[in-house]
Amino acid sequence: MAESFYEPDDGSADQDGPTRWRATAATEGPWSSRLQHGGPPSALLVRAAERAAHRQTGREDLQALRVVVDFLGPVPVDVVEVRAELVRAGRSAVLVDCELSAVGRTALRARTWLVRRADQPTPAGLRTPAAASTSATAPPPAAPRPEDLPDDDRWDFGYAHHLRWRPASGVLHSAGPACVWVSPQVPLVPGEPLTGLQRVVTVADSASGVSAELDWRRWSFPNVDLTVHLSRRPDGEWLLMDARTQLEPTGNALAEAVLSDRHGPVGRSAQTLVVGPLP
Q1: The model scores a pTM over 0.70
Q2: How many domains does the chain have?
Q3: Structural domain of residue 14, as residue ranges?
Q4: Cα(89)–Cα(97) distance, rounded to whole angstroms?
């Protein structure tokens, strides 16, 4: 087991800390141990966006609630470099663009919105997450709690070994929709707990695998993007992912997931997939 998804690369730092990171075995994807799964590098870009927004605005009331990641190419399990640029700093929302590069080329681009957290009371008729449940440990309706389910560790690649998988419904390793509790076992970078959107992005990029309609041994279905929308910051270490894939005969597919914590739904994710036979 690696101790984190990334480790700082020596000699790489700016006023916001390291800009180059060395990928560990925890990032290894399903089709090649030399290529990263999409979740960890996407989360690394969310981290860069959050730090750039807080550093350049000085604000503590911002929460990252939406990100779109475009995958321009595969990411090797090697040193990656991240860059962030503040695009807009408004009173209610801040927009940050980020890039991740490896071996001299840009591999990922991400655009993250951070929205202000208001202090005014919740409007009548709406409920806060805490009020929506009578217990801090109550699961969403009809979903068993993660502590009442066994771990499923049958996936055999680096990224999967560094998350805990507890299927709640459906069959995780067979074709079709599935609902599963997921929790990363290691931090993104040493000494830092995962923030809400970092945790969600790390997990949500596996929705296409959780709900795969095809045999991984015969087909590849990488995603060219990942979009996550949150209504609020998720609470706790476990995320419930209710995922399904819509497969088309034209070699395309769409994977979508409803994302929840113990209190109920927090958002949705979507991935555009390109489907083809393995060589």
Answers
A1: yes
A2: 1
A3: 6-117+138-277
A4: 12
